Amino acid sequence: MLTGINGVLTLSAGTSDLDVDVLTVDDTGNTFGGTGTLALNTLTGLGLANPVGYSFFEEVRFTLGSGDDTLTLSGGSAAYTTVNAGGGTNVVN
Ligand SMILES: [Ca+2]
Fold it and tell me: Per-residue pLDDT tens for 6-57?
């Protein structure tokens, strides 16, 4: 669950774009739903108190909870993104 992560978190997977580092975002414990945005180097929303910075992850995998979720994948985010939105009425933009 991402709710409860209150600090400023920055994740770095090294300095190479030639490998395949996978960032797994697991929010399956969230039954209330949420709204989030994945952009170039930042993930916001989904209960996070602050944006999470990430760099050099070539793939991002979301597993969301049973509530109604809205996830926006904006331009420039990771090359490969997979979303399992879980139950609820979900929107992926
Ligand atoms: Ca959901």
Answer: 888 999 999 988 899 999 999 999 999 999 999 989 999 999 999 999 999 9
Total domains present in the chain: 1
Residues contacting residue 24 through CB under 8 Å, at least 6 positions apart = 60, 61, 63
Instruction: Residue 82: give the domain boundaries.
Output: 19-88
Q: How far is the CA of 19 from the centre of ligand 1 (A)?
A: 30
CA atoms of 61 and 68, how far apart (whole Å): 18
Could you tell me the distance, in angstroms and rounded to a whole number, from the CA of residue 70 to the centre of ligand 1? 8
- Give one word for 79, left, alpha or beta, with left for phi > 0 and alpha for psi -120 to 50: alpha
Give the global pTM.
Answer: 0.90
Q: Residue 17 Cα, ligand 1 centroid: separation in angstroms?
A: 31
